[in-house]
Amino acid sequence: MSIDSSAQNVEQNEKESVLDNNVITTESSEFDDIRHYRDDEVQDAIKSILDNEELVTGIYKRIFGFLPDFLSKLGKPFLKFILKLRFSKVKTIAQVQNYVARFMKGIIRDTTDGFTCKGFEKLDPKKGYLFISNHRDISLDPAFIDMACYFNNLDTVKIAIGDNLLRMKVATDLMRLNKSFIVKRSVQGRDKLKALAHLSEYIGRSIEENHNVWIAQREGRAKDGNDKTEEAILKMFYMYGKKKKLSFKDYVKTLNIVPVSITYEFDPGDQAKAKEIFETEKNGTYVKSQFEDIDSIVGGINGYKGRVNITAGEPLSGDFETPEELAQTIDNFIYLNYAMFPSCLLSAGVEDGVAPEEKKKFEERMSKISPELRDYVKRMYAAPYYNQQKVKKS
């Protein structure tokens, strides 16, 4: 299926999701503090984005960086005019996501050796699913899941993002235009409990309205390669179920949870993650710079990834009495469906079946890693292999 035709289906789904104004929906004012933008807010958000000088400068440098600096005084205003003209007709979230899909096609073409997705073709386009995946890249994890949805005629996902990523208004606008909703990590005390209940209801109502939702299995990326579902996230889901007076096992069944295993043959942020672990072990702590998360997003998008594979399971239908049982089932699926690329096998000391040219490619990659970080990177790549072996043996 083409991206353009998929976008038309997304647009139709958006139109069909508008419910009676007297009913509380995920587009109601009750959720204004966390929801993604509506169609009627798209034009204002785009105007705000294109008025951001830093963003326009960045785009100008990326496209016209080869030109002399003195030409930027004329070039940047002209570029801004062209961008505003081009996006003046973009008035819906579906149209925004059509641009995002085209952008992702370029990312797949330029920074990967191929993208494969499995399991999504078995899902019902008329239902809403809660996708829970391992977490390796801040922006690309949900972006690749969105591409899998596009290619399989499924509505794109509402994306859970931490408020730590919203320190720049332009970043906030960009993410909320791409169906991102906010997880308030920074609140404390009673406000935190209230925020979690609010988030739980937003996610629950989204599924009730047949929207797809993505959330990572844990807060923060798995920097050491050990993908582990945080039970606290599953308990958060149940807060809305508890409000509805449902048992944990009965409410879980209504969420249509789909576990997803994401594999990057090469992680663009492997060295940065290793550095964080190294400095934490050495100094006892690691302090992020102000816009380090934004830098990670840019690095992940532009960096080489090798092959990328995403595998979705069937919606979980078992009787899960506790969050612990549910977490273990999600983890096992992620471990068993993690793609064993040569980077993973060689890091674990397994050479059987690895072609000589693949080994050479891996060794060249490792040679570019700082010597003090190399073992940390290898352990990160090897962890999924060991986790998979443990599940197979058990």
From TrEMBL:
This protein's record includes keyword Acyltransferase: yes
Residues covered by the Phospholipid/glycerol acyltransferase domain: 116-216
One GO BP: D-galacturonate catabolic process
Entry GO MF terms: acyltransferase activity
Signal peptide as annotated in the record: none
Keywords attached to this entry: Acyltransferase, Transferase
Domain of life of the organism encoding this protein: Bacteria
Family matches, as InterPro entries: Plipid/glycerol_acylTrfase (IPR002123)
Pfam families referenced in this protein's UniProt entry, alphabetically: Acyltransferase (PF01553)
Protein's name according to its UniProt entry: Acyltransferase
Record organism: Ruminobacter amylophilus
Lineage: Bacteria, Pseudomonadati, Pseudomonadota, Gammaproteobacteria, Aeromonadales
